[in-house]
Amino acid sequence: MILYGQRYNTQRRYYYAMEKLKKLTQNNHYTILDLLTMKPHIIITEVLVQFTSIKTSASSALQFLNGLSSMLSLTFNIDSKNNHMLQFTRKAVSANMIVKPKYEDTWNVGILFDYWKEKGSNRNLTNIELQTKLTSLLMTICSMSPAEIEGISLRHSVICEQTDKVDLRLQPKTKSGLHSHKLPKTRDRTVCPRATFFDWLIIY
């Protein structure tokens, strides 16, 4: 079956993603203007966290992620397939088994969003600060508890002061090894990945 020149399954994924996005806007009382002023990658992260709190299958999350990113690509007229943070999201979901968290607040993205309120609105963040924030959020998506976050983010991360890079590593549930990702470090110590992880642990 073809709808608007596209296959039925593709359209179905779009409608499914729109329904999940609608629930997010209702829960957070977002307006259409609020969504249009948000970065697409923040929207993807928020909706994905809400989705994975109910659907614990990694394959379901990846299918939903593809539909949501395609829909937002059309809305914002951007190429999300080659986006760095979207690739990181896919690898984070693929490398870890998404499980029901022991602590319900682990899925609450607002906890880490509130951490950046003192830095101003999300629109005022630099690209590196925004990437750092999203990376911190993605590290929590596949975690059961703060103890696992500590094991993932601190034990397997390498921060090099000379190259101004941080090597973030996710510990897969399989024996396929570690997935390494490079992320520039900020000069502001309050938003660097290491400080963010420690602050997350302190919250709990």
What's the arrangement of secondary structure elements?
Blueprint: E1 2-3, E2 6-7, H1 8-28, H2 32-37, H3 40-52, H4 58-76, H5 84-95, H6 110-115, H7 127-141, H8 146-153, E3 158-160, E4 165-170, E5 179-184, H9 193-203
Antiparallel strand pairs: 1-2, 3-4, 4-5
Short account of what is shown:
The protein is mainly α.
Q: How far apart are the first and last residues' alpha carbons, in Å?
A: 50 Å
- The tally of beta strands, per DSSP, is 5
DSSP helix fraction = 40-55%
What number is the mean pLDDT?
56
The poorly predicted ranges are: 1-6, 98-117, 140-157, 163-187, 190-204
Radius of gyration: 17 Å
**Strand order, sheet with most strands:** 3-4-5
Account of the protein in words:
- The chain is mainly alpha-helical and 204 residues long.
- It is built from nine helices and five strands, in the order E-E-H-H-H-H-H-H-H-H-E-E-E-H.
- The protein has one domain (2-203).
- The strands form two sheets. The chain has a three-stranded antiparallel β-sheet with strand order 3-4-5. It has a two-stranded antiparallel sheet with strand order 1-2.
- It is globular, with a radius of gyration of 17 Å.
Provide the descriptors you would attach to this structure in a database record.
mainly alpha, disordered N terminus, single chain, 9% strand, 204 residues, 9 helices, 3-stranded antiparallel sheet, two-stranded antiparallel ribbon
